[in-house]
């Protein structure tokens, strides 16, 4: 019986192209396999939906766990121009919106944005026009600073106007599943994770 199960597991892994040794993989191996999954699923219409970034993160984390990869070392980052949860007033006031500069959809703005962090790298289905995984200290300026500040070598490249809330991937995935079942997300549970400026976040990761 055990031999049959092993054969079926190996067969599934070979057919799906997903590593079957993921459950015993090291953190570095899990990270590498996570990146591989992201690149293969970047254009998947079930996982990625435009202007649905938090659910994109939840769907991808579900997908990752279905393929036996550990998400304990992942975090979901909620990015905002205000150090608080997005409200109806935030969404109605374009001055409080994020203006990304390196996205798969041009001329877009968001009241907030959600991405996945793994081992100091950002997984973002809205980033760039092709599947790209950059270190956090490259992702934020490339995504949220205007190009002209780079071209003109401007000294004002501050990211202090953008805030980040870091939520453990396991916690976020659990809340995402509860939302799918109950129809709402327990935001109060997530509010215990504070917002900090991007600059302070990078310092805490020794990436500034």
Explain how this protein is built.
The protein has 208 residues and is of the alpha+beta class. It has a single domain, classed as C8orf32 fold. It is 42% helix and 13% strand. It has helices at residues 2-16, 27-41, 53-66, 88-92, 136-144, 147-151, 169-182, 187-190, 198-204, and strands at 74-80, 113-118, 121-123, 134-135, 163-168, 195-197. The chain has a six-stranded antiparallel sheet. It starts with a helix and ends with a helix.
Helix content: 40-55%
Count of domain modules = 1
CATH C-level category = Alpha Beta
Low-confidence sequence ranges: 1-24
| Level-2 CATH architecture | Roll
Structural class determined from secondary elements: alpha+beta
Radius of gyration: 18 Å
DSSP summary, beta strand count: 6
Order of helices and strands: HHHEHEEEHHEHHEH
Across the major sheet, the strand order is 4-3-2-1-5-6
Shape: globular
Count up the helices.
9
């Amino acid at each position: 019986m055990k031999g049959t199960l092993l054969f079926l597991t190996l067969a599934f892994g070979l057919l799906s192209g997903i590593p079957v040794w993921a459950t015993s993989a090291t953190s570095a191996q899990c990270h590498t396999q996570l990146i591989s999954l992201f690149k293969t699923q970047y254009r998947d219409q079930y996982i990625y939906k435009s202007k649905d970034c938090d659910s994109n993160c939840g769907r991808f984390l579900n997908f990752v766990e279905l393929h036996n990869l550990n998400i304990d070392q992942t975090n979901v980052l909620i990015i905002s121009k205000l150090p608080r949860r997005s409200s109806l007033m935030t969404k109605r006031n374009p001055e409080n919106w994020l203006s990304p500069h390196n996205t798969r959809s041009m001329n877009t703005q968001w009241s907030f944005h959600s991405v996945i962090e793994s081992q100091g790298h950002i997984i973002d289905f809205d980033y760039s026009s092709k599947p790209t995984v950059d270190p956090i200290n490259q992702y934020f300026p490339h995504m949220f600073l205007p190009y002209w500040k780079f071209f003109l070598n401007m000294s004002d490249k501050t990211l202090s106007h953008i805030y980040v809330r870091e939520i453990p991937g396991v916690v976020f995935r659990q809340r995402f599943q509860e939302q799918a079942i109950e129809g709402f997300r327990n935001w109060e549970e997530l509010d215990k994770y504070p917002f900090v400026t991007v600059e302070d976040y990078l310092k805490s990761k020794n990436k500034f």
